[in-house]
Design brief:
The structure holds two protein chains of two kinds. By secondary structure, chain A is mostly helical. Chain A is built from 16 helices and no strands. The longest helix of chain A has 34 residues. Chain B has a four-stranded antiparallel β-sheet with strand order 2-3-1-4. In chain B, helix 3 runs antiparallel to helix 4. The relative contact order of chain B is 0.29.
Chain lengths: 489, 186
Amino acid sequence: MKSSVTDLIDNTVDDPTRPQELILGGQDFTSITETVSDIVLERKTPKAWYIAFTFTAGLTGILFLMIGWLFIKGVGVWGLNNPVGWGWAIVNFVFWVGIGHAGTLISAILFLLRQKWRTSINRFAEAMTIFAVICAGIFPGIHVGRVWVVYWLFPIPNYHHMWPNFRSPLLWDVFAVGTYATVSLLFWYMGMVPDLATLRDRAKGRIQQMIYGFLALGWRGSHRHWHRYEKAYLLLAGLATPLVLSVHSVVSFDFATAQLPGWHTTIFPPYFVAGAVFSGFAMVGTILIPARQWFGLKHIITVHHLENMNKIILATGSMVGFAYATEFFMAWYGGNPNESFAFVNRAFGPYAWAYWIMVTCNVVTPQLFWFKKIRTNVGIMWVMYIFVNIGMWFERFVITVTSLSRDFLPSSWDYYQPTIVDILTFMGSFGLFFTLVLLFIRFLPMVAMAEVKTVMPIADAHSGERRSVGDYHGDIPRHVREVPDGGGK
Amino acid sequence: MSANTKQGALYGLLIEFESPSLLMAAVDKVREEGFKKWDVHTPFPVHGMDDAMGIRGTQLPFIVLASGMTGLGLATLMQWWMNAVDYKFVISGKPLFGLPANIPVMFELTVLFSAFAAFFGMWILNGLPKLYHPLFTNKRFRRATQDRFYIVIEAADPRFKLEETRNFLASLGGSAVEEVNESAED
């Protein structure tokens, strides 16, 4: 399964005269199909999977216990106090929504930009998007206080004859996150249908055949179908691109439209989006590196792919660092004493410890990716991803809590501390996330086989003429394209 | 080559190829021969196949556009009716209906409706889900979703004549030519 060739070939070196080898180890269509589908169909579930699953399912149980306790007792079980009415629930919500953004970036934006390397990791990243959005969705759902009227979030006719207030950014959030979750799910499932058909056709057991057959919707690889399928894929990518930028912009409006110093700033939408992509890529990397190791996918998800991800982390991390600096500059240059106090208080006030954790993890850490040695070292980059994950959680904590805890009126200042329920709920959400990830890698194709096949040199129908990576979408018109001998490769 | 005497009517003939370039050359010949009811089955979308088969553009983008506009219109109407007509509620002195505050929801519903149209429209135009198809009775055809490439000419095609078409397909240099029946043979 594991190719020793992979360790020898370095595909991180750019040779402009030759297209990059994205898939290593002399693979063909058959071996790609086998490598990916055997993980689901043939290989025995590893013991480690059961151990991990037991652990994460236990954490998920704790999550639901904590939610149950919250429902029984009310939001008083959290550490909220008078000025800090938004605590970890919002921090966690923004954290998880942000993580999802990497998946959409890989599946939609990199697709529109024709980044062929995306094909090895897009399925995984999209799955992660959906699971992260599920985790995110829990928090606004449970933090409303009176959960039995949570349906007031939606414009549903009710006996009070009330409608929600569409002039509130919190309601925009309901629509933004709801649309995002729906579109991500459709995009993910649609991309998976051809691969589910592959699993159906390779499955040996009757039950497997029936389940995958049902999910594959009768897909038979017809080119007349592929034709519309590719068009739909392109349209969904085009729709998901502005959507993903809108989601975290709308999330940032929750803060930016308030008048609280530290929140009331116009830099928030782009700054939140950059931070979301930054944190999302780190989370993709955090789970992708162990997965490619354990399931023998190093020749499909190569160091070249990881290096590209690290370059995006470097770019978005620098944007985040720049945004921190701009915020400080504007606080001083704007001349508003409340605003400048809020920022001095962030860096040197009671939450200075959180602020400097954030700066260390988000500003300093990604800058190490300027060095190619670090960018291509799998062990070091994994540690860096963990730092970024921590840093981005603290960013949301710093924004939410430091601004609230010391607002305009010093007499109402108070220090916020989470309770054990806060902490266990957050840990529980990780349990839910990883439980879903484990189920995904066990039962669904974790690499987009059909898409990977299109970027292999042998996929080019004209490979006799020129050896290049196949172009997945966007045909060259017939009158431009030379039809070669057609005799074969 | 299985006989079609025992079970059901003949659905068509399939020919298998081992690589996209072999397939592409054969597709050009099938199209030039003038067949109408035929299709190509591949594990992934082969680049340049639309032109080779002579497939015309799909109307899907127009469906998506119409649906997106519907979403935009509905979002505008909904927000106006709910906040400015049916349940008037002045909050922070904001106007009951002012475009800037209503744009985010308008945008989101435009995207949502467009995405539904792209997703469901594509499946409906493709005639899927369709869990049974005569091609699924062919064991060889299972590799159409894995690593082999097929051309299928339906018996319903006006130019289809079993022996002639079989000979024609055999001349294309594929690795196998087989008959496919409408229903499974046990």
